[in-house]
Design goal:
With 341 residues, the protein is α/β, with parallel strands linked by helices. The protein has helices at residues 8-15, 19-27, 34-47, 53-60, 76-86, 89-92, 105-117, 132-136, 159-172, 192-204, 220-237, 250-264, 280-284, 296-314; strands at residues 65-70, 95-100, 122-125, 142-145, 153-157, 177-182, 209-213, 243-246, 271-277, 290-293, 327-330, 333-335. Strands 2-1-3-4-5-11 form a six-stranded parallel β-sheet, with helices on both faces. Strands 7-6-8-9-10-12 form a six-stranded mixed β-sheet, sandwiched between helices.
Length: 341
């Protein structure tokens, strides 16, 4: 037989509290003493209460939705980060609405309008397109990941250390020339630290180096065409040198690796290759790729931890005034695989 649905009236009768008190437990628990909260929580277990989520949303206006905007799902880093963020549901109970922005500010603003219409409680933004000052103006808690973050909380990798680690590994591999391929990244972006760390290390040890800073495209087809052009440029400029190439991420490193294997039938000894991320593609590539590992699960958990604390504070009867943005830096881990000696 179908079990009877437990109502607020049933819980009130069981606990000898009023229905108003029971409603406050669900919609404004901070207004009750801890003792009374515990009595009601125990009653829910005893009565096998199944929460009516829709009713709770209508009563409190709290949806338990978090909006996520990522640049794209093509880059393995973003797809893996999204997977790790979604897995935090088991810890925090928040659901997610996800949009891919594709570096179009007008589209991303429409996405944010859509998210706000759903009465989201917070946002995690990986896309760098919209300035943090504007994101802060939407009056919901926001945490950025690997993007400009002056006015919002953030979790970032220590990109400078990552650049140092990459250059150091290529130095140990005995390369004649060290080359870093990346976009022309503004200094406000955390990823610019990779460039600075790489250059400072090369200068410290008097290592010949070159920066190739160019936009590599937003799709696989664009990436492949532009990386092929970069590879040909490197081959012609350094034909008889052992080349250590530091790519901006594991997806682009894998594209270069595949181009070299298709051309030579193997990864030539004159090429040493390292990526950045430790996304799954670096482990699953035809030749497992050395990489500077961003601790993606740690970053996802820390971002959700910061955001959850800010969202929960807003639910209190007397929330504290917003403080300065919280910035968390996660150290990278150098992972040597088969594309470096």
């Amino acid at each position: 037989m179908k079990s009877k649905k437990v109502t607020f009236a049933d819980i009130a009768a069981y606990t000898n509290f009023s229905k108003t008190t029971i409603s406050r437990y669900f919609n404004n628990p901070d207004s009750l003493t801890l003792e009374n909260q515990q009595k009601i929580a125990d009653a829910l277990v005893a009565l096998d209460y199944k929460e009516n989520k829709v009713g709770r949303i209508l009563a409190s206006g709290k949806t338990e939705f978090v909006g996520i905007i990522i640049p794209n799902l093509y880059m393995h880093y973003y797809s893996e980060m999204l997977s790790q963020i979604l897995s935090t549901y088991e810890t925090y109970g928040y659901k997610f609405l996800v949009f891919a922005g594709n570096a179009k500010a007008d589209i991303e603003r429409k996405y944010i309008e859509e998210l706000l219409a759903y009465n989201i409680e917070g946002m995690i933004i990986l896309s760098p397109t919209i300035p943090s000052r504007e994101l802060a103006s939407y009056n919901v808690p926001v945490v950025g990941i690997e993007r400009e973050d002056q006015y919002i909380s953030s979790v970032n990798t220590d990109n400078y250390m990552g650049g140092v680690q990459a250059a150091g590994l290529l130095k140990k591999s005995g390369c004649d020339i060290l080359i870093h391929v990346n976009g022309n990244i503004p200094e406000t972006a955390p990823a610019s630290g990779r460039i600075r760390g790489f250059v400072d290390t090369c200068k410290e040890y008097h290592l010949p180096y070159e920066l190739i800073l160019t936009h590599l495209g937003d799709t696989f087809e664009e990436n492949r065409a532009k990386i092929r052009k970069v590879a040909e440029q490197i081959k012609q400029k350094y034909p008889n040198k052992k080349k250590g190439i530091f790519m901006p991420n594991d997806t682009h490193a894998n594209v270069l690796l595949n181009l070299l294997i298709q051309k030579y039938g193997k990864l030539p000894e004159s090429y040493q290759l390292i990526g950045f991320d430790d996304s799954p593609i670096s482990r699953e590539a035809v030749i497992p790729t050395s990489t500077v590992g961003q601790q993606i699960p740690v970053i996802a958990r820390e971002a959700m931890k910061i955001l959850s604390a800010q969202m929960e504070e807003r639910k209190k009867r007397r929330p504290a005034l917003p403080g300065d943005p919280v910035h968390k830096i996660i150290p990278p881990i150098l992972i040597r695989r088969n594309t470096t000696i």
